[in-house]
Amino acid sequence: IEEQLRRSEKLSTLGEMAAVLAHEIRNPLGSIRGTAEILKDDYKPENPKYEFIEIQIRETERLNRVVEDFLHMARPQPTDMQSCQVLDELEMISTLLLSGARERQITLELKSPPFPVTIQADGDKLRQAFLNIIINALQATPIGGRVLISTTVHASTTCEIQFHDTGPGMDAATMERMFEPFFTTKPGGTGLGLVITKKIIETHGGTLMVESEVGKGTTVIVKLPMQTAANGGMP
Ligand code: ADP
Ligand code: MG
């Protein structure tokens, strides 16, 4: 299951990166094609160089299609906003990770209010974000440590989820760079988990903050707007 989660983390990351990369490729490709068209006007079809320019145009078109197809395959789903039960989602992700945690004698604990916490969210993306944060916490936590996920609600308008671990914490240099794409301190890490996670939370109108102290542990604090009558909830 560890491998499965690893793969799913990598895949969603890959989808986001693919969209960025495709965009970055398509723009210069448009310039290459446009200028090749202009050059083509300078040559008669008999000229052997005419053929070369046609090859350039044909190949830019092909590259454009490859990018298009790849994007189609990898493009993150259009955000499908629905009523989501935060506590259920957290419970689901925790259950998935429980056996891995148990293997390392880590206590994975949920502290939740006794009432439902409903937000408007794309469930897949929300789970992905929670998964990335909890995987980081579990990876940082030593054998016998503890990961605590506690949810609170402020004035029925904001829900706050704290993901606390008893890992080594982060030094100032890591704190400064943790949201940089590809920044990782782990062998085999992608350095994309937190970038993507922050983006997911922010596209849901929320915020992500990190508090960390070397030797003490790390707390990731996610705040999300609660569902109200105004944003799709039942009055
Ligand atoms: P990755 O997990 O692939 O390294 P992330 O973007 O998820 O990439 O995290 C970036 C870096 O932030 C990690 O390599 C690690 O140094 C640091 N980090 C993230 N979460 C924690 C945590 N809970 N405890 C300590 N360090 C963390
Ligand atoms: Mg990570």
Verbal overview:
By secondary structure, the protein is an alpha+beta fold. It contains six helices and seven strands. It has helices at 2-40, 48-74, 86-103, 123-140, 172-177, 193-203; strands spanning 82-85, 107-111, 118-121, 146-154, 158-165, 207-213, 217-225. It has a five-stranded mixed beta sheet with strand order 2-4-5-7-6. A two-stranded antiparallel ribbon has the order 1-3. A hairpin with a 3-residue loop joins strand 4 and strand 5. Helix 1 packs antiparallel against helix 2, helix 3 (86-103) packs parallel to helix 4 (123-140) and helix 4 runs antiparallel to helix 6. It starts with a helix and ends in a 10-residue tail after the last strand. The protein binds adenosine-5'-diphosphate and magnesium ion. Residues 132, 136-137, 140, 165, 167, 170, 174, 178, 183-186, 189-194, 218 line the site of adenosine-5'-diphosphate (ADP). GO terms for molecular function: ATP binding; phosphorelay sensor kinase activity. Keywords: ATP-binding, Kinase, Membrane, Nucleotide-binding, Phosphoprotein, Plasmid, Transferase, Transmembrane, Transmembrane helix, Two-component regulatory system. This is histidine kinase. It comes from Pelobacter propionicus (strain DSM 2379 / NBRC 103807 / OttBd1). Its EC number is 2.7.13.3.
Specify the helix fraction band.
Answer: 40-55%
Strand order, largest beta sheet: 2-4-5-7-6
Give the distance, in angstroms, between the N- and C-terminal Cα atoms.
40 Å
Largest sheet: 5 strands, mixed
Task: Name the helix and strand elements from N-terminus to C-terminus, one letter apiece.
Answer: HHEHEEHEEHHEE
Bound molecules: adenosine-5'-diphosphate, magnesium ion
GO molecular function: ATP binding; phosphorelay sensor kinase activity
Domain Histidine kinase: 20-228
EC number: 2.7.13.3
Catalytic activity: ATP + protein L-histidine = ADP + protein N-phospho-L-histidine
